[in-house]
Write a structure and sequence with these properties.
Two copies of one chain form a homodimer.
Chain A (H helix, E strand, L loop, with lengths): L15 E6 L3 E7 L5 E8 L17 H23 L8 E6 L3 E2 L4 E2 L10 E2 H8 L5 E5 H12 L8 E6 L3 E7 L2 E3 L29 H5 L1 H10 L12 H9 L3 H25 L3 E5 L1 H4 L2 H14 L3 H4 L2 E4 L3 H14 L1 H4 L4
Helix pairs in contact in A: 3-11, 5-7, 6-7, 7-9
Chain lengths: ~350, ~350
Amino acid sequence: MARSGLATGDLGAGPALAVDIGGTKIAAAVVDADGTIRATARRPVPAHRPSEVSPGGREPGEDGVAEEVFGALRDCVGEALASAGIAADAIGGVGCGCAGPMQWPAGVVSPLNIPSWRAFPLRARLRELFPERPVLVHNDGVALAAGEHWAGAGRGVRNLLAVTVSTGVGGGLVLGDRLFHGTSGNAGHIGHLVVDVDGPDCPCGGRGCVEALASGPRTVHRARAAGWAPAAGQPADGHTLAAAAAAGDEIACRELARAGTAVGAGLAASASLLDLEVAVVAGGFAQSGPIFWDALLAGFGRHAGLAFVQRLRIERSDDPGRIALRGAAAFVLAPHRYGWPD
Amino acid sequence: MARSGLATGDLGAGPALAVDIGGTKIAAAVVDADGTIRATARRPVPAHRPSEVSPGGREPGEDGVAEEVFGALRDCVGEALASAGIAADAIGGVGCGCAGPMQWPAGVVSPLNIPSWRAFPLRARLRELFPERPVLVHNDGVALAAGEHWAGAGRGVRNLLAVTVSTGVGGGLVLGDRLFHGTSGNAGHIGHLVVDVDGPDCPCGGRGCVEALASGPRTVHRARAAGWAPAAGQPADGHTLAAAAAAGDEIACRELARAGTAVGAGLAASASLLDLEVAVVAGGFAQSGPIFWDALLAGFGRHAGLAFVQRLRIERSDDPGRIALRGAAAFVLAPHRYGWPD
């Protein structure tokens, strides 16, 4: 594969443009070589229009929506540049984290929660905006891992796992002091570690994966099946479930704890296989308080038998939004460590 | 940590001495820089003498037994050198794989099945035999991984897992075209991946690990508890269990398959986390025929949901004894890839 990154210093003192695309929001930032964020901007992802979807067939409005989503991204980028007072041609490179799956390193993306982007050529489109600049696109969990290592809870360690527990359960790895991509850019999929061979089916096609037990939608689904319901007018989502658990709802507590236990078991498995120093956990459940977090630590403790596994340091991500932007910037600002291999 | 390996070429054309120490046998070989094995030798590990063990206290005969084991190793090495027609001082370096656990990179070993070696300074003792030569000691699973990558089923791939299913379940990793050690030399412990959160206790202190479900002793234990017994005069071990399964014994078949399923789930989990190209499986069960192997492949298939996981190539190790010796030699013959990091 052709080397897409820069040698250190190729950017001179030029800042990077960082982009982070999730299922519901787009964020952009101008980031200096030392990690300083000069300016940020945010946009919601323009909504999917299910009314335009013809059942089982072509979705006639989707091309327009795909461009609308890219337009929101372009506006968001423009606002970040303007707010930083920097012209587009002064940007040294572009790093982008995007919800998966994607073809890597091509940066052709099909984010599960942006249905209008199916095989959308995100990297190519960003290169049109920033010609002759390096543009690197990777999974959002990978950007978080790079950010936590470069400028977050994992500074100075050699071996780190970042995990996001959200609509899905994703992650990224720094191994031997470098971002680890795996054979096809898919390393870090802790969500599809099997932790319960007889567990529930997983959207991936497997069974008993961490994601099948711990994702927001799966946890809410279990709670609803057990009789939990949100207060009138509230959505049944991970946020209201976590709030109900915090308020003492028994079912919500039990299912949130079950999610935490599964993530903890996944961390123990990952540390057993990889002899890691740090795991950083992000996402709404991780921020929701002790019910999830204590269950995560207990699940880890129950499955961390060997001394080197028990030594894993488990941290809550401090500010995953900003850290993921810094990580995306690091793809191009520190490519010897966070760029793509030759 | 000081660099213990050599730059490529420091050994000139000098061969390496390779040593492989398991629970019951010691093997040594003289290996050329191109992987050719000039000569090998084997010795049984001198037996532990339980009669000398004072219950709960000091084991008076152990110092003597520890030296007896090292004496057998020295004899084995001497035979390999003599058989290759090479003097000890013509050896360029020594690579050694040893059953774990151990302190790495110090090479202070405590192999579970050699009770007289507890914190035995194996690397220091080998350095006395080969002064001023690099001597590198690592887990036997790591030597197998290096060997499969250097000269076995994983030649030319970037990301490989080697697994040995035996008295324990161990392994080693090559990631990004280099041997991956982890933070404290413990990477590759696939035996302690949790695959069944509610599974049986594991000797490691955890629960539901691959090893708790798939090791030889655990599988035999389950079969015996279910009513299986070996033929009169035969030991109840993994070998007789696998033979009984091959002959159609229902309990033996079921429990061997259960072990295979657990290993397959562990491979799917490892491939999900690491986006591997190849997994190579060694050990008596892997060699025992289709009952274990088919269950392993089915267990993998059941848990390999994502396309990149399904692409994993799973191979049976061709000749793990010789491959592990080659891998140990590679520690010193190809240190840029298989040596220790600076």
